[in-house]
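User: Hey, my collaborator sent me this sequence without any context and asked if I could get a structure. I don't really work with proteins. Can you help?
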Amino acid sequence: MIRTFKYKLGLRQQDRVAVEQTLQICQNLYNSALEQRKLHHKQSKSWGLKNPTNRFAQNHQLIELKQQLPEYQTANSQVLQDVVHRLDKTYQNFFRRCQAGLGKGFPRFKSKDRYGSFTHPQFSEKWIDWQNSLVRFPGLGWLRFWQQRPTAAKRLAASQLGLPTPYDLEQHLKEGARVKTSTIIRESDDYYICLAVEFPESARIAKPSLSDLTKLRTVGIDLGLKELVTTNTGQVFGNLKQIKQAELKIRLTQKRLSRKKKGSVRRAKQRDVLRKQHTRLQRTKKQELHKSSRHLIDNYDVICVEDLNIQGMLSKGPSAKPSPSKMQLTPAAQRGLRRNIGLAGWGELVRQISYKAESAGRYCISVDPKGTTQQCSGCGGFPPKPIGLGVRIYSCSHCGMVKNRDENAGMNILLKGLQILSQKNEVSQFRETKQPGCISPTLEKGAEPYGFSPQNSKDAGQQCEAVSFSENSH
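Assistant: No problem. I've predicted the 3D structure and written it out in C-alpha cell form, which is a compact way to encode the shape of the chain:
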C-alpha cells in the first residue's frame, strides 16, 4: 500500500524564488507540449499523416530544448519528463472519458494559478536529514521542512491499539518502507512537500476473525447535512457549522470581487483574500473529516456505510431522477441541497474511512442505500407514503416504533452490512472445508451460497455434494 506524507516547507527567500521559477518553467513546458500535440493532430488530420507526437518523442526533444533555452537547464531533467508524462495521462483520461461517455474534458492550457506542483519520480531516503529537518530536492538543494512529531498521547494510544505511530515517517522508513516520489505543491502562499511512501505487505495489520460477529464492535453510520455522522446508537459527531460559516464568507467575498474593476490593484488584492478563504475552508473541512474518520477507526471493528451515488445527487441535468422525498422541494431548495451535499464532503469521508480501515485492520462495508431511510429497523415495514426530508422523527405505523430518523437509517445500514459480512464468512468457511474435488461457484451480489447456510450446515462432505460442480465439468 502507498501512503502520502505531507510536510510544510520553511523556504528562505532564495529558495522561494527557485521554486517559483521551476513552477513557471514546468507551466511553460506543459503549454508548449500541449500546443505541439494539437498542431500535429491538425496537420495529420488534414494531410493524412500519422501523429508523430507522443510521450517518448517529446521527452527526446527535451535535450534539444535545454540546449536552446538556458533557463530550462536550471530544472531537473526528470522533473521536466514528469511534466510531459502528466500531459500524456491527461490525454489518456480524455480518450477514456470519450469512450465511456462521461463527458469530454479536452486538455486545456494552464495559467499561473492553475499549475501549482511539480514532481520528481525518484527519491532516496538519504535525502532526508531528520536531525536538522532538511530534505533534498534535485535541482533545488536542501530545503527546510516542519516535522509533524506525534505527541506522547498519540504514541500511547497507538501502542495500546496495536497501530503504528501516526506521522512517524522516520520509524516507518526504518521498518522497511520506501519513498517512491516527491512532489512540491503550492497552496495559497505556502509550499508543501508530499512524499509518496510504499509500505511492505508485512506492515498490514491482520483483520479480526469473522467466526463470531457478536464479539466485534460494529456500527452503521448515516451521513447527513445537519449532523455529518449519525450512528445506529444515536451518537452524532462532525461539526458542519464552521464549514458553513466559512462558505458564507466566501460567497460574500466573491460578491465584493465581482464589483471590482478587472485589471485593477483592488481586484488583485480581493482575489488574494478569496484564495486564502478557500484554503481555510478546505483545511477546516479536512480537519473535521479526519476527526470523524479517526474516531470511527479507533472505536469500531466493522463500519457499515452507504454506497451513495454522490455525483448523481449533485447533478442538475434532466437525467438526474429525484427521489420521492426530494420531489416536494422547490428548485431553489434543490440547489441549496446540492450545495450543502457538496460542502459536507460525504465522498471524502467515505474515502478516508476506506483507506484507514485497510491499514488499521478494520472492515469497511458498503451497502445499498435503497430503503434505509424509509424502512423500519424494528419490523422491516415501510410507511404508506414516502417520508419527506423535513420529518426528523421516524414513527412506524406497523409496530409503533418511534426513533430518530438518522438513527433508524443507521440501524438499517448496520443490518445490511452484517448480512453481507456473514455471507463472506460463510463463503470463506466453505472454501476452507471443501474437498479437493469441489469448486465453489461464484456468488452474485446479494445471493446466498449454494448448498450452505447457517441453518442447514453439515459436514464438509455433504457441503461438497450440494454443489453440483466438479473439475471435470468445466
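In plain terms: DSSP finds twelve helices and 14 strands in the chain. You can pass these C-alpha cells on to your collaborator as they are.
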